[in-house]
Amino acid sequence: MNQRRKTVLAATALVVLSAGLWWGWFGWDTQRDIDPATGASSGPYEWWQICACIVSWAVIAWAGTELLEPAVVIFLMPAAFTASWILSSALTDDSGLWAIGAVLVAAGTLAANALFVGLLRLLFRKRNRSGARKDPALP
């Protein structure tokens, strides 16, 4: 398989997995929790969903940086995640506020992902300088 095909497959997998993060951890949970004593609502997401999404995101981003250029990972992951968020939110929101939420989701995931991928790049650049060899089969 040539290098271009590997890159396209890796980028496609990155997009599918990143979009899947939304659907797998959050997209199915739409019920808000109401405290019977105070009437206050919270949710719909639980702390474990957020933690699991962050860990999953980190693993996917790490794998992406091993196979693709960092800039590709930085932009594709938030774009796919945000697109999934938009799909689920725009269809259920009559107020139009989903557009503001989309900007916030896009900006937040882009900023956090850029920081994380930058840290990965620094870590692995340092590791590669210290004598650890990268697998020659990887780009």
Automatic annotation (TrEMBL):
The chain crosses the membrane at residues 7-25, 45-64, 71-91, 97-124. Keywords: Membrane, Transmembrane, Transmembrane helix. This is Uncharacterized protein. It comes from Arthrobacter caoxuetaonis.
